[in-house]
Amino acid sequence: MEIMRAETAGFCMGVDLALRKLEALLTETKRHGTIHTLGPIIHNPQVMAEYASRGVLRADNPEDVLPGSTVVIRAHGVPRNVCDSLKAKGIRLVDATCPRVRTAQKLIAKQAEKGRILLLFGEEDHPEVKGLLSHASAGAYVFDSPERLAGLDLPSGPEYFLAAQTTQDRQEFEIIQEMLKERLKRDFPVLSTICDATMNRQKEAIELAGLVDYMVVVGGFESGNTRRLAQVVRSAGASCVHVETADQLLLDELRTFGKIGLTAGASTPKKIIDHVHTVLASL
């Protein structure tokens, strides 16, 4: 059994930065109050369980946080009103929003100030998307596929601009741009908000898929970038499985392949990837 492992597998810069900020809080000798993350700081249940064992609490709503606590803003960012309500309660905020997400928020706000309506390629229920939408003060439409965009009723009068969730599929985004050019019949601003790390990870996964018999993608099932990683591999015509941990691998099936490719999402810890690699190499 030969295992080919993607060089881009594992933590991206934004995830690494967010966890470093949380670690710094945990090592403070005079920290004040309980530490909460507002939702999961990253989309990986194993990481969240580890921090829970060290006393970090998860609050899914600002109302669940008691005054005097410290709240770490998740890597995906949060809506603007959430930060305002927490500050009003006297809660200490540590902003661990990914710098790429923060840049996307600022770019969207700048276009919205000009009265333009946001067309956002993303998952409506994803935390990052909810945060991005809070900066679209002139209004917004959200769609998660070219097909959903085609079904939207877009009035012809307003000015629009296009952006994407930072972890979206670049190839689909380009298809969407062409669809809108044909549909709107006029120029519109297109924001470059898809993260370079996401594009590089997807590109390498597609290339790797062409060299192996089967692909294994490792990462949280709630992780949008990991799900899309598996999606782009399958779209390239490769067989693929998405697992969170090594114990979810179907070993008898995997033994039938001579060469397996291994990649992982941006919120997958190295130790989990290493364990999956070890199990695959033992087949």
SSE topology sketch:
Blueprint: E1 2-5, H1 13-27, E2 35-38, H2 45-52, E3 57-59, E4 70-73, H3 80-88, E5 92-95, H4 99-112, E6 117-121, H5 127-133, E7 140-143, H6 146-150, E8 160-164, H7 170-184, H8 196-209, E9 214-218, H9 224-235, E10 240-243, H10 251-254, E11 259-264, H11 270-281
Parallel strand pairs: 1-11, 2-3, 2-4, 4-5, 6-7, 6-8, 9-10, 9-11
Task: Please tell me about this protein's structure.
With 283 residues, the chain is α/β, with parallel strands linked by helices. The protein folds into three domains: 2-10 and 196-281, Cobalt-precorrin-4 Transmethylase, domain 1 (3-Layer(aba) Sandwich); 13-97, Rossmann fold; 100-184, 4-hydroxy-3-methylbut-2-enyl diphosphate reductase, catalytic domain (Cobalt-precorrin-4 Transmethylase, domain 1, 3-Layer(aba) Sandwich), CATH 3.40.1010. 41% of the residues lie in helices and 17% in strands. It has eleven helices and eleven strands. The chain has helices at 13-27, 45-52, 80-88, 99-112, 127-133, 146-150, 170-184, 196-209, 224-235, 251-254, 270-281, and strands spanning 2-5, 35-38, 57-59, 70-73, 92-95, 117-121, 140-143, 160-164, 214-218, 240-243, 259-264. The strands form three sheets. The protein has a four-stranded parallel sheet with strand order 1-11-9-10, with helices on both faces. The longest helix has 15 residues, at 13-27. The radius of gyration is 20 Å and the shape is flat. The termini are close together. The mean pLDDT is 94.
